[in-house]
């Protein structure tokens, strides 16, 4: 029966013919895996991606929650222009629920497209989290980053 369905002949072929790492499955008619690899097209010429991690100052969890809606409103132009590629909270521990009031906040992380570290600093200095004393921008980690791949 295995011979009838072509299973045994395929099993005895050399490994490169059986294993296809660029396919989603190992069927007779493999389906190519869709990947979006980073390229020079993802970032405008003269700009670079910056990985930013900004810790919160101690004891600012309540203030963070109070100004959070303003924080999101202030990010909207950067998100719409795709200058901020990704962003979100960094937590000290895995939360037990999705209620932000129960989170053990560490700070925030984001990937910002900018020409320089100074431009990134200017963006985070304008944020309500900085102005209201939530972010400790003196301890911010701002690193030039080269993204190898993205998933939609």
Secondary structure topology:
Blueprint: H1 7-11, H2 15-18, E1 36-37, E2 48-55, H3 61-80, E3 84-91, E4 105-114, H4 117-126, H5 128-131, E5 141-145, E6 149-150
Antiparallel strand pairs: 1-6, 2-4, 2-5, 3-4
pLDDT average, as an integer? 83
**Largest beta sheet: what is the strand line-up?**
3-4-2-5
Q: Estimate what percentage of residues fall within beta strands.
A: 15-25%
Individual helix count: 5
Global structural class? alpha+beta
The succession of helices and strands, N to C, reads: HHEEHEEHHEE
What share of residues is helical?
25-40%
Q: What is the tally of beta strands? A: 6
Rg over C-alpha atoms, rounded to the nearest angstrom: 23 Å
Q: What kind of assembly state do the chains in view correspond to?
A: single chain
What is the approximate shape?
A: globular
Which regions are unreliable across 5 or more consecutive residues at pLDDT < 50?
37-41
Termini gap: 42 Å
| Main beta-sheet strand count, sense and barrel state | 4 strands, antiparallel
